[in-house]
């Protein structure tokens, strides 16, 4: 395989990817990734790391932490998932995506191992990112958990700090259908004597984190209980206030050399500029106001609805599509009744059937129309709106990716 396009296509076609396929590609357990990293020379042991889990906000928090570190002149590796437009977005150093040439070389060099070891797409990507970070001699890696925590392929690192933003109902088929069971899975990233920052105090699961941290003698900090100066960020969604608070506490706990209050302030204000983050309450235009947002579960949509209620508009339009395995009924129960809805399905095999989504919309007596593609749904919303309207595009990362 000579070109990046050939390699990328091979990755998607040959390796099971949860992003595309769903549960059939999910491989719980660390044996595969541990074997792969050992084969690669354990690159993850050559740099400091910060590990971030949580139902919502872990991606934004990871980018905030990265931006602050960059302002303090650290060389920062950032590993996140999924990507919006291109695979290389998952692996960045100081905001710059991994070179296509490195991806081609890495895949060609280790292809036989991938196939023989039956690695998942995610396991391969984790190994590639850690190798790239080692080769580029980074100072710190900020590593976002893919799914859960305890059995996630990223959970091979021993970080200098663990972060758990919050717990909500998502991926319940893998993590359990109670907040306690989900919290236990995410608490799996807490390590012996390594401090952990919890973004939100949720009283029904406080004991899960307290017990885990006590067992491992890991100092625990509840970010929302610590009084902090209010900081602003260029990530403007209302839900970002908790991620901002969590990020500030992260640096209070770490006390890394050379990081000042000014670095924190600037880093939070320049997240998008420094890291290239997209799809978090991203305003695409005004007149009408168009917002793209990757929120995809009930707890996230509660923030979305709350934020929209605080805005002035004439009419409200939602362009929505979803993937399978989401509790859509709980989402539709809280969506505004007065809005106009344009429903379609993202162009992946994991997409939820449009008939299922339409059934829920009609059950909730919403003003709804269906479309063959996200693009058609989006164009219909644009054509049907006036300058004082709001168009919200979301429901899935893949929906946002298609219209960006």
Characterize the main sheet: 8 strands, mixed
CATH homologous superfamily name of the largest domain?
Mur-like, catalytic domain
Radius of gyration of CA atoms, rounded to a whole number: 21 Å
Tell me which CATH architecture of the largest domain applies here.
Answer: 3-Layer(aba) Sandwich
The quaternary state of the protein chains shown equals single chain
Helical amount among residues, as a percent range? Answer: 40-55%
Structural write-up:
The chain has 17 helices and 14 strands. The longest helix has 18 residues, at 100-117. Mean pLDDT is 92; it is low at 21-25. β3 and β4 (96-97) form a beta hairpin. An 8-stranded mixed sheet has the order 4-3-2-5-1-6-7-8, sandwiched between helices. It has a 6-stranded mixed sheet with strand order 9-10-14-11-12-13, with helices on both faces. It starts with a helix and ends with a helix. The chain has helices at residues 4-14, 18-21, 31-40, 58-71, 100-117, 121-135, 172-175, 179-186, 206-215, 240-254, 261-269, 271-275, 298-309, 328-334, 354-363, 374-383, 397-403, and strands at residues 48-53, 76-79, 91-93, 96-97, 140-144, 161-164, 196-198, 220-222, 282-285, 289-292, 316-320, 340-343, 367-370, 390-394. Helix content is 42%, strand content 14%. With 404 residues, the protein is α/β, with parallel strands linked by helices.
Tags for this model:
6-stranded mixed β-sheet, Protein-Tyrosine Phosphatase, Chain A, 8-stranded mixed β-sheet, 2 domains, UDP-N-acetylmuramoyl-L-alanine:D-glutamate ligase, 17 helices, alpha/beta, globular, 404 residues, 42% helix
């Amino acid at each position: 395989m000579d070109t990046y396009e050939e390699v990328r296509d091979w990755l998607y076609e040959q390796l099971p990817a949860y992003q595309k396929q769903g549960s059939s590609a999910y491989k719980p357990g660390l044996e595969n990734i541990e074997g792969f990293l050992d084969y690669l020379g354990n690159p993850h042991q050559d740099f400091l790391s910060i590990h971030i889990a949580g139902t919502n906000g872990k991606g934004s928090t990871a980018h905030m932490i990265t931006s602050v570190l960059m302002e303090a002149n650290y060389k920062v590796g950032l590993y996140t998932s999924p990507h919006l437009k291109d695979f290389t977005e998952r692996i960045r150093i100081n905001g710059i995506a991994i070179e296509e040439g490195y991806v081609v070389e890495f895949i060609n060099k280790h292809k036989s191992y991938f196939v023989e070891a039956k690695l998942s797409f995610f396991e391969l990507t984790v190994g590639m990112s850690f190798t790239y970070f080692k080769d580029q001699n980074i100072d710190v890696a900020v590593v976002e958990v893919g799914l859960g925590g305890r059995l996630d392929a990223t959970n091979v690192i021993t970080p200098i700090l663990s972060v758990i933003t919050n717990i909500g109902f998502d991926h319940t088929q893998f993590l359990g259908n109670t907040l306690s069971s989900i919290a236990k899975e995410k608490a799996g990233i807490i390590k012996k004597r390594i401090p952990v920052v919890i973004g939100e105090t949720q009283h029904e699961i406080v004991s899960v984190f307290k017990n885990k941290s006590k067992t491992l003698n890991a100092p625990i900090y509840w970010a929302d209980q610590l009084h902090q100066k209010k900081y602003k960020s260029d990530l403007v969604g209302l839900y970002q206030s908790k991620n901002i608070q969590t990020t500030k506490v992260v640096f209070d706990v770490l006390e890394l050399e050379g990081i000042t209050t000014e670095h924190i302030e600037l880093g939070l204000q320049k997240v998008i500029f420094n890291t290239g983050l997209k799809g978090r309450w991203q305003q695409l235009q005004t007149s009408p106001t168009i917002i793209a947002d990757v929120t995809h579960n009930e707890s996230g949509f509660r923030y979305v609805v709350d934020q929209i209620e605080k805005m002035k508009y004439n009419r409200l339009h939602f362009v929505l599509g979803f993937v399978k395995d989401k509790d859509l009924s709980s989402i539709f129960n809280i969506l505004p009744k007065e809005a106009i809805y344009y429903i379609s399905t993202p162009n992946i095999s994991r997409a939820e059937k449009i008939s299922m989504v339409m059934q829920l919309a009609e059950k909730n007596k919403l003003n709804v129309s269906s479309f063959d593609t996200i693009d058609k749904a989006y164009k219909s919303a644009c054509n049907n709106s006036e300058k004082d309207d709001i168009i919200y595009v979301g429901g899935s990362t893949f929906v946002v990716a298609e219209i960006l």
